[in-house]
């Protein structure tokens, strides 16, 4: 009986952990994966987690620093934004331009994520980093990490910033749309109609 209860709890925990994502560095505002809280990563801008007194605020390099994510989905689009202030409501700076497409679940560490050069920040400026992930349904997940921008803060070392094997990301180049459209035009029209025909057979087959 005890064992059964343990397995049930373990299974529930595993299911929870398999969903959504975490920020490992800088320290996130709250553990929004914890089942003991009412945070929801579906809630923008920061999963419903309120800004705490400076306990969870990390000193982060003024020119940009490291970001370490714990990804739980097979793939996702990732957007990293930044807003200035203590209680940020407007995340109007984008740190991922273009946005990223990540593959694999596990730790993804970006050692040096530069801040915009025109950012009106000085040593001691408070800011919040917002990470948004977007999956195939179009619904987004949100998490935030509060930082103090510091001239003397440093990025994580190579040994602290390790990406798990099988995890990677690529910036999504907008130019690739035009490129694939060009490729599409050169595709043999006969093979295209053959594919369409097969699709129709499949659809009718399914409805019978
Ligand atoms: Cu999820």
TrEMBL record:
<keyword id="KW-0325">Glycoprotein</keyword>
<keyword id="KW-0472">Membrane</keyword>
<keyword id="KW-0812">Transmembrane</keyword>
<keyword id="KW-1133">Transmembrane helix</keyword>
<dbReference type="GO" id="GO:0098552">
    <property type="term" value="C:side of membrane"/>
</dbReference>
<feature type="domain" description="Copper acquisition factor BIM1-like">
    <location>
        <begin position="18"/>
        <end position="163"/>
    </location>
</feature>
<keyword id="KW-1003">Cell membrane</keyword>
<feature type="transmembrane region" description="Helical">
    <location>
        <begin position="189"/>
        <end position="207"/>
    </location>
</feature>
<keyword id="KW-0449">Lipoprotein</keyword>
<dbReference type="InterPro" id="IPR046530">
    <property type="entry name" value="BIM1-like_dom"/>
</dbReference>
<dbReference type="GO" id="GO:0005886">
    <property type="term" value="C:plasma membrane"/>
</dbReference>
<dbReference type="Pfam" id="PF20238">
    <property type="entry name" value="BIM1-like_dom"/>
</dbReference>
<keyword id="KW-0336">GPI-anchor</keyword>
<feature type="signal peptide">
    <location>
        <begin position="1"/>
        <end position="19"/>
    </location>
</feature>
<keyword id="KW-0732">Signal</keyword>
<protein>
    <recommendedName>
        <fullName>Copper acquisition factor BIM1-like domain-containing protein</fullName>
    </recommendedName>
</protein>
<dbReference type="InterPro" id="IPR046936">
    <property type="entry name" value="BIM1-like"/>
</dbReference>
């Amino acid at each position: 009986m005890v064992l059964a209860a343990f397995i049930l709890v373990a299974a529930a925990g595993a299911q929870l952990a398999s969903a959504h994502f975490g920020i490992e560095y800088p320290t996130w505002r709250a553990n929004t994966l914890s089942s003991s809280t009412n945070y929801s990563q579906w809630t923008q801008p920061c999963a419903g987690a309120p800004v705490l007194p400076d306990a969870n605020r990390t000193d982060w390099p003024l020119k940009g620093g490291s970001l370490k994510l714990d990804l739980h989905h097979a793939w996702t689009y990732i957007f990293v934004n930044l807003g200035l202030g203590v209680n940020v409501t407007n995340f109007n700076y984008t740190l991922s331009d273009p946005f990223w497409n990540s593959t694999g679940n596990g730790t993804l560490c970006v050692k040096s994520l530069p801040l915009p050069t025109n950012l009106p920040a000085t040593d001691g400026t408070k800011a919040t980093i917002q990470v948004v992930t977007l999956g195939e349904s179009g619904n987004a997940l949100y998490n935030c990490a509060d930082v103090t921008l510091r001239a003397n803060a440093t990025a994580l070392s190579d040994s602290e910033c390790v990406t798990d094997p099988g995890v990677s990301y690529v910036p999504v180049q907008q130019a690739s749309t035009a490129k694939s459209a060009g490729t599409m035009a050169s595709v043999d029209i006969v093979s295209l109609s053959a594919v369409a025909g097969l699709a129709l057979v499949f659809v009718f087959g399914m409805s019978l």
